[in-house]
Amino acid sequence: MAQEQGHVPLPRADAIRSRLVDTFSLIEHLQGLSQAVPRHTLREILDPSRQKKLMSGDQNQLVRFSIKPRHMGHITHSQRMLSRLQVRCSRRPPLSLWAGWVLENPIFSKFIIFLIFLNTIVLMVEIELMESTNTKLWPLKLTLEVADWFILLSFILEIILMWMFSFSLFWNNAWNVFDFVVTMSSLLPEFVVLMGVSGNSVWLQLLRISRVLRSLKLFARFRQIKVIILALARALKSMTFLLMLLLIFFYIFAVTGVYFFEDYSRSTIENLEYNMFFSDLLNSLVTVFILFTLDHWYALLQDVWKVPEASRVFSSIYVILWLLLGSIIFRNIIVAMMVTNFQNIRNELSEEMTHLEVQYKADIFKRQIIQRRQNLSPEAVRATSHRKASKDVLKPKEPELSDSEKSDAETSDAETNDAETSDTEKSDVETGDAEKSDTQRSDSEESDTEEGEAKGSDAEQDEDGEGQKKSSKSKVYSSSSSTASSSSYSTFLVDFDYDGKMDWETLVHENLPGLMHMDQDDRVVWPRDSLFRYFELLEKLQYNLEERKNLQEFAVQALMSFEDK
Amino acid sequence: MSQYFHHNPPVRVASSSLFGTASEALYARFKKIKRKDVECQAFFRKVLKNPLFQLLMISTITSNAFFMVLGTDYNIRYKLFRLFEISEILFVSIYACEFFMKVYVEPIKYWRDGYNLLDVVIILIILIRYSLRKIKGRHYRYLHIADGIQSLRILKLISYSRGIRTLITAVGQTVYTVASVLTLLFVLMFIFAILGFCLFGTPEKGDLDNWGNLASAFFTLFSLATVDGWTNLQEQLDKRKFTVSRAFTIIFILLASFIFLNMFVGVMIMHTEDSIKKFQRELMAERHVTLMEEKQMILRNQQEAVNRLMNTQSGGGKNFTELVEEFKKTLRHTDPMVLDDFGSSLPFIDVYFSTLDNQDIVVQKLQELYYEIVNVLCLMLEDLPKKMSSHSSEFMN
C-alpha cells in the first residue's frame, strides 16, 4: 500500500483506504481474529447443481450465514408466519393463515363494505317505519330486524377472524380498536332489548344510536378517508401545546371572571338577561367560551353596565382584553398552525413523487453513461489511425443512429444543434472562442445503424436541452491544429459529444446526487481479489493524480518564467 | 478607576457620558467581586436544577390553581375556611422561597430571563392583594378585583414546560407584526369614531347611547368590527333616519372586519411558516452535524487502528505491508463479494473514468495553448531585437 513514501495525506485516498479496510475487515484479519471468508452466496446454495457439488465435496460442511441487509420492503405478518418452522412442518395450515387469507381476499372486504352500506339503508328504512302501526308492514319490519342481526353477526365474525389472525397485532392498530368498540357498544343494547325491556325506554334509543355508529366503520375501509383523518390527527397532535396554552388562558379568564363580576351576579336588579352567566365557575367557563366565539359580547357588556356597583373600567378591560387575546389572536394562530401542518403533509406527499422522478432520471443517466463508455472504447482505438481536421459540420441526420456516432463541432460561431436532431448524446457544444483557428476533430464515424433503445431518453434530453439552452459553459473544447505535438495523447484526443446543450460537467453535477441516492436493487458482485486490487489501484490513482497536478504546476511555472537567454 | 478597563477587554462600549463611564465601572466592579460563599451557592444551584424540586413546584402551582377553583364557590370557602388560609400561606411561602433562592444563586443574571420577571410580577400581585387588604380594610370596593388577578399564578407553569416555551418563542416573534396591525386598527377606529361622533352623536337628533362620547363610539365600532349584533346598532341609526349611516357602517365593516381582521390571519400564517421552516432547518443542520461528527469519529478510530497495526511489530518482525501481502495471497478470484455501496458500483466507475478522461483532454489542450502562447511570444521576441538593434545602432551613431 502506497503510503510509506511520505505522501501528503489526501482525504480522498484516506477515504478509499478506510473503505478497503472496512469491506475486508482487514484489521480483524490481521489481528487474527476472524478467518471466515464468505465463499458462497445464497443464490449459489439454492442452485441445485451447485448445491450438489457442495454436498459432494464435504458432507459435514458447516454453513455460516452472514446477512447483508436488503431492502425488502414491507414484510407482512402472513409472510412472517409462512416462514415459521412450526407452520411449515405441520400437516394442515394453521387457522390463522386461513383467517389472514380470508381477510385479505378482495371479495371479503367488498362484502363487508356492502354490509356497512346495507346497515345504513336498513337503519334509514327502520326509522321511517318506526312509529307506524300499520300491520301490513310487519313482515317488512321483521326482515329489517333479521338483516340487522345478520349484519351484527357478520361484524362479530370479522372481529373474530382478525383475532384468529393475530391477537396482539389487532390491538396495535387504532382502526381495529375503533371497530371493536363500535361493535361491542352496539351489541349491548341489542341484548338488552332482546331480553324484553319495555318499549320506549332509553335502551331503544341507545340501540339506534349504536346502530348508526356502526356506519362509522366505513372510515377504515376507504384509503382516502383514512388519509384525511390521519392528516387531521397529525395536525391536532402538533397543536397540543397550543391547546394547552389556550386551556390555561381559559382557566385564567374564567376564574377572574367569577371574581370580577361578583357584584353583577349578586345584584338584585330585575331584567338582567345574563345574570347567571358569571355566577359560579362552570357558568363562567361557558361564558368565556361564548365570548371566545364573539357572540353577543356587547349585549353582555351593556347588561353588566346596568348594575351601578360593577366597575365599568374593569369589566370593559376584561371583555376587550379577552376578545383581543382569545378570539382574535388565538384563533388566527390556530388557523396558521393548521395551514402550515397541511402544507407540510402535502409537501411530504409530493416528496414521494419527486423521489420517484429522481429515480427515473438517475436511471436514464446511468444508461447514458453506459452507452458513452461503450462508444469511447472503440473510438479511442480508431482515433490514432484516422485523424483529419475538418471544419465542416456533419450533423447526424439520422435519428435512428443511437450510440457510436460522433459529429464535428462548429468552428467559431456559438451555434447549437437543434434538439430534435440530437440523438442520445451526440450534438455539438458551443465554443465561445473565436480565436481558435482550426478545430481538430476526431473522425466522424458513421457507424452502422445500431438500433439503440434511446428513443425514450431522446425525449428526456430534448426537454433537458431546451431547458439548458441558455446555460452553456464557456469551456473551450476545441484543440488547436497542432498535429505533431499531440501524438502522445492520441488515445485520448477524442472529442466528447454532448447531449442537448449540456456539457459533461453540468450533466454529472445534476444527475449525480440522484444516482447516489437511488434505491440500489442491483448490486455488483465482485471477485474478491479484484475488489482488493480495485481499491488499491484507486488509492494509488489519487496519489498519482495529485503528483500530476504538481508536475503541471511546475511545468507552467517554468514556462512562464521562460526567458530568452 | 482606569485599571478596571484594562482588566475587562470585552467591555468595548465607549460611552461618552459620565453616567456611561460610571456605570461601566460599576459593572466591572461587580464582575470583579468574587463571592465568598461558593459552596453554598453551588448547593442551591444543584437544588434548583433537581427534578424533584421542579416536580414540587409544578405540584404546588397545580394545587394552588385547584384551590382557587374551589375558592370561587362561597359555600365551600365558608366551610373550609381554615384550609384555605393555611394553604394560601403555604403557597406564598413556597413562591417566596423559590424567588429568594434564585436571586441568591444568580443575583445579576436573574433579572435577564423573562420567566423570572414573570415570577417577580406574580409575587407583586400577591403583595398587592395582601397590602390592599391591610391598608384599605376589608370592605374596599375593589378587593375582589385583586382576588381575581390571583388566577395569573398559573402562568408560572409555563416556565416548567419546554413545549409551551418553544411555542411561545415561536409565536412571540410575531408579536411585533401583531402590535402593528392592532395599532393600525386602532387608528382606523379612531378616525371612524370621530366621524361617527360628528355624524351621529349630536345631542339633538343623534343616538347618544352609542355615539355620544368617544368611549361608546369606540365600543360601537368594535362591535361593528367583530360583526356581533351590528344589525341592532344599524336599526337604531335607521330609526333616527340617518341616510348616510348605511354607507358608513358597510364601509367600516368591509375595512375592519373583512380586510383587517383577516390580514391578521395572513400575517400569522406567514410568520408561523417562517419560524417553522427555520426551526426545521436548524434541526436538520444539527442532525447533519452530529452525523458528520460520528462519521469522523469512526474514520479516526479506523485510522488509529491501522496506524497501531502498522507500528507494532508482532510475531517474528512482520510489518504491516508484509501482513497485507500475505492477506492478499489468501484472496481467491472465485470468492464473490456482494457490494451495494456507490463507490464500487458500475455507474460510479463509468462516471469517474469519463471525468478523468475529460480532465486529461482539458489538460492536454491547456498545454497546447501554452505552447502556442510561447510560440507567439517567441515570434514577437524575434521581431523585437531587429528593431532594438536598429535603434541601438542609430543610437550609437
Protein architecture, described:
The complex is a heterodimer of chains A (565) and B (397). By secondary structure, chain A is mainly α. Helices cover 61% and strands 1% of the residues of chain A. Chain A contains 22 helices and one strand. In chain A, helix 8 (106-129) runs antiparallel to helix 12, helix 9 crosses helix 11 and helix 18 (297-305) packs antiparallel against helix 19. With 397 residues, chain B is mostly helical. The longest helix of chain B is centred in the C-terminal third of the chain and has 67 residues, at 245-311. Chain B has helices at 2-7, 18-32, 38-49, 51-71, 74-79, 81-105, 114-136, 143-149, 162-172, 175-200, 208-211, 214-225, 230-239, 245-311, 320-330, 346-396, and one strand at 336-339. Chains A and B meet through helix 1, helix 2, helix 15, helix 18 and helix 19 of A and helix 4, helix 8, helix 9, helix 12 and helix 14 of B. Strand 1 of chain A pairs antiparallel with strand 1 of chain B. Chain B: Residues 51-271 form the Ion transport domain.
